[in-house]
Amino acid sequence: MSTSTNEAHALEAPRSGRIAPRYTRNSSGGGNFEMFAWLFMRVSGVILVVLIFTHLFVNLVVGDGIHAVDFGFVAGKWASPLWQVWDLVMLWLAMLHGTNGVRTIINDYGDKKATRMWLKTVLYVATFVIIVLGTLVIFTFDPCVAGATAETLQEYCGA
């Protein structure tokens, strides 16, 4: 094969000037955000592995296993501030970790600036709503519901 044939079939390097980058670094000193986002993904990933596997071990292995997980089990767990904070940290880290990953995907594959803006707006609003609702559920959960039968109250509330 001749050199001219090889040059005709050569592939251009990605982003070699033919395609402009879709987003650029902020030149006003805020250019470290992507580095911190990258670092957050690594640190939160390691912490999430510990949180999730401990969560699974406590819920599925200790005691009666999966057969013990019911309303009363959750009520008993969330009666302890330790498990409330544990589940809260797991919720927040999982949501922020996932949001950062999806944000990166949107930045990489969003063709237009307006499309990226709208997709990220929807992502951020959904993340905010889930974090707020999840936090409220964890800290306002009350197994002693009004209008419950005496047996239910006795079982879950010790009344």
Automatic annotation (TrEMBL):
It is found in: Membrane. InterPro entries: SQR/QFR_C/D, SuccDH_FuR_B_TM-su. One of its GO terms (molecular function) is metal ion binding. CDD domains: SQR_TypeA_SdhD_like. It comes from Arthrobacter yangruifuii. The chain crosses the membrane at residues 35-58, 78-96, 117-141. This is Succinate dehydrogenase. The keyword Phosphoprotein does not apply. Keywords: Heme, Iron, Membrane, Metal-binding, Transmembrane, Transmembrane helix. One of its GO terms (cellular component) is membrane. Pfam families: Sdh_cyt. The keyword Cytoplasm does not apply. It comes from the Bacteria.
